Amino acid sequence: MSDLSQLRQKIDEIDLAIVKLLAERMDVCRQVAEVKAGTGTAVIQPQRVREVLTVRRQWAIDNQVDPDFTEQLFRILLSETHRIEIAEERNEIAPSKTAEVSGSAPQSALDTVACRIDHVVVAVANLDSAMVFLTSLGFKITRTQDSAIVTADAGGVTVVLVGPGDPAVDAHLASHGSGVQHIAIEVLNAGFVQQALAEAKVPLLTDVIVDADGHEQVFTVLDPSTGVQLGFISRTGHRVPISGQNVRALFRALAR
Do 141 and 216 fall into the same domain? Predict the structure, then answer.
């Protein structure tokens, strides 16, 4: 049986191969950009984007890889491809974190494990109007088992809308009005983040909460200087969306 060091070495070798393939792909993308520039072809071609995502999802399914995870990766890759097509026309040197990472200042605990914004929860005084607005932007609205909570999705972006009718939500709206209630950041491990925040003496609203779907979450208290409350989430179960019960429980915890 391979030991841990051998397995890590194998992962390093695979990751190096991935990076080399990324470099090769980006080189081809630069060539595509040159062809587009020479023929006046539009930079963004929605049908091609949809085709790429659909085919890659099927490849993932065929190879027993989570298709949602694969789509997320390719959306990031497509975003970088677009950046390269546009940035080739700019002359300034791109900023880099290399000096920060390799210099005297080490990465913080959060900088080490934070991945992306997972979702944003928005409290709204009028749920129907908010749904109409996001639908007009192109978001897909999905109702949860809670009639006053819906999710709005567009690609890899998720906004959770919470309407009035619950005392805790009504109290929040009375105090703050409609707006962002909290930002959820995906992290590798919520327990690690909780420990790091506690050591930094950051006030926490909750311990790590684990729901039936395998979402691990921990929340800070609302910061009075910025009006922002943060949640940190790691997914240890199936890749399923946050339920209305999760969001409702948070509002009720805030009201205590």
Answer: yes
Domain count, the chain: 2
Residue 152 lies in a domain: yes
Q: How far apart are CA 33 and CA 204, in angstroms?
A: 48
pLDDT in tens, 75-134: 999 999 888 888 766 666 666 665 555 555 678 999 999 999 999 999 999 999 999 999
Residue 31 within a domain: yes
- pTM for the whole thing? 0.83
Host domain of residue 147: 109-254
Beta strands 114-123; 179-187: pairing state = antiparallel
Q: How far apart are CA 162 and CA 250, in angstroms?
A: 11
Residue 128 forms part of a structural domain? yes
Task: Give the torsion sign (CA, 210, 216, 221, 222).
Answer: negative
**Packed helices 46-62 and 67-87: angle between N→C axes, nearest 10 degrees:** 140
The phi and psi torsions of 106 (rounded to 5 degrees) equal: -75, 160
